[in-house]
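Researcher: We plan to redesign the surface later, but first we want a full-length starting point. Tokens attached.
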């Protein structure tokens, strides 16, 4: 605020608080000198704060408080207001940024997965091909266990129905999806005898 704007602010405060009357309506030279000095000190303390904002703080302050308003009260409200404006601007900027397409997200996932697998000493290209193939297979219904699209295949052992080991799919499901079945790794070969297509739940 500028010094010349302070008398009007003091007049507004004086309409709520009589202690501001000597600054708003000085009657003597001594009161005028003190009012000018107070206006200069308030202007320095409020700095860049707009006059209209300071007035709105004065009104709101006396709506909720009976103690005199001060520069610290106005300054605190200004800082809070500015922080809110910055947060809103940042949120708007985030919302305005285009979201990555499905293909872009997939490429990002591939890079992250490849880096992780390579660090583990595995062939990232082969592993990613296998993962993509298994995902494509999940888009069709399994002709063996009747698992719906998006759901994993299951097997039946006695009265128990449980997912196939390692979240694999039945070979017939790969065939139905038109996808070549990846060769099983060592751990999958160990489980093959438990997950044959003969061990499927009876769904009628």
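Model: Full-length starting sequence:
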């Amino acid at each position: 605020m500028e010094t010349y704007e302070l008398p009007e602010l003091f007049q507004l405060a004086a309409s709520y608080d009589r202690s501001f009357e000597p600054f708003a309506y000085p009657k003597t030279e001594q009161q005028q000198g003190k009012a000018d000095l107070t206006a200069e000190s308030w202007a320095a303390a409020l700095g860049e704060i707009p006059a209209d904002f300071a007035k709105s703080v004065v009104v709101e302050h006396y709506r909720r408080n009976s103690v005199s308003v001060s520069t610290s009260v106005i300054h605190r409200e200004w800082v809070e207001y500015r922080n809110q404006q910055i947060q809103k601007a940042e949120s708007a900027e985030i919302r305005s940024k285009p979201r990555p397409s499905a293909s872009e997200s997939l490429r990002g996932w591939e890079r992250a997965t490849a880096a992780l697998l390579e660090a583990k000493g595995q062939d990232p290209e082969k592993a990613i091909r296998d993962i993509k193939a298994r995902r494509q297979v999940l888009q069709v219904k399994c002709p063996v266990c009747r698992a719906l699209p998006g759901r994993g295949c299951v097997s039946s052992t006695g009265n128990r129905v449980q997912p196939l080991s390692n979240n694999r799919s039945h070979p017939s499901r790969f065939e139905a999806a038109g996808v070549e079945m990846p060769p099983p790794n060592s751990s999958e070969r160990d489980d093959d005898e438990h997950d044959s297509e003969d061990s499927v739940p009876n769904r009628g």
